[in-house]
Design goal:
Elements: H1 2-12, H2 17-44, H3 46-54, H4 63-74, E1 89-90, H5 96-112, H6 114-125, H7 131-136, H8 140-169, E2 180-181, H9 182-199, H10 202-211, H11 217-222, H12 224-238, H13 243-286
Parallel strand pairs: 1-2
Helix pairs in contact: 1-2, 2-5, 2-6, 5-9, 6-8, 8-9, 10-13, 12-13
């Protein structure tokens, strides 16, 4: 319906403000429907979502835990054997497990629907771009989605097991027993995965900031040392306070920052090339 309106209005002239709002409304409705469908699907597949995915990082047989333990045995580093004892989770409210189930299904729906929601909003903003801008932004939805999911998987497989091990075994006194609430466990796991998913969008953020003229390669190179400090602070926030976990986050972030410099340089070169082509075409028209 919205696409049909868009085609009709392109022939008649510019769309009015209310017509833009109507088109945006349909994009939002379709996005919400996609989230709801995936939420219901996640709610139905409870065993897969909880037993296979969410609760897995705390178990000794989880992939990361097994690999680190094998590495620790090979180099005789006992500290690398993490989550050797399964963590027992508790629910302290009568409806706690039901509300947790609903909340997890909603978050799962949001994560899985992210590419589609991004595509819907891209369809809304795309007509406002020039042809050359649409050409340069081609594949942005796919790349943004891939970076987000790579970040989520990195947080899930690399950071989550380390955080779970540190936070569930830390004690201020042997007299204090850790009894972890399931909502606290899921909240920690979700925040880690979503934080890394968003952080991995750094190259795309750099791309759009360069497009609008707020960032240049020279600016990024000038403040490279400052960015290293910010990256270490960010790593300290989203990881447990141990050097290994922080370095595990810092290394990919530093690589992403350098990738952002390369992307920014390419954007500037494309801008300069488009400007030169425009000046040539303008000169040819005048002559």
């Amino acid at each position: 319906m919205a696409s049909g309106q868009n085609k009709r209005k392109s022939n008649e002239g510019e769309m009015s403000f209310l017509e833009h709002l109507e088109e945006l409304r349909w994009h939002i409705i379709r996005s919400v429907l996609a989230i709801m469908v995936l939420m219901v699907t996640a709610f139905v597949f409870k065993n897969l979502i909880f037993n296979t995915i969410i609760l897995a990082p705390k178990n000794p047989d989880f992939l990361t835990n097994r690999l680190l333990c094998q590495l620790g045995q090979a180099f005789d580093i006992e500290a690398l054997c993490i989550n050797t004892k399964p963590v027992n989770l508790i629910s302290i409210k009568m409806a706690g497990q039901l509300t947790t189930h609903i909340t997890v299904a909603l978050v799962t729906g949001l994560i899985l629907a992210f590419p589609y929601v991004l595509w819907e909003f891209w369809r809304f903003f795309k007509p406002a771009l020039h042809n050359n801008e649409q050409e340069h932004a081609r594949g942005a939805v796919l790349i943004t989605s891939l970076l987000f999911f790579i970040g989520v998987l990195f947080g899930y497989f690399a950071l989550a097991p380390l955080s779970i091990h540190f936070l569930t075994t830390y004690q201020v006194s042997p007299d204090v027993v850790n009894q972890i609430n399931i909502r606290s466990y899921i909240g920690t796991l979700t925040s880690i995965c979503l934080a890394t998913g968003l952080v991995f969008e750094l190259p795309m953020i750099t791309y759009f900031l360069t497009k609008v003229g707020l960032v240049t390669p020279a600016f990024l190179k000038k403040y490279r040392k400052h960015s290293i400090v910010v990256i270490f602070i960010l790593a300290a926030i989203i990881t447990p306070p141990d050097v290994f976990s922080q370095m595990l986050v810092c290394i990919p972030l530093l690589i992403l920052y350098e990738v952002g410099i390369v992307i920014s340089s390419r954007v500037i070169k494309n801008k300069e090339r488009d400007h030169e082509n425009f000046m040539k075409d303008d000169a040819s028209v005048k002559t």
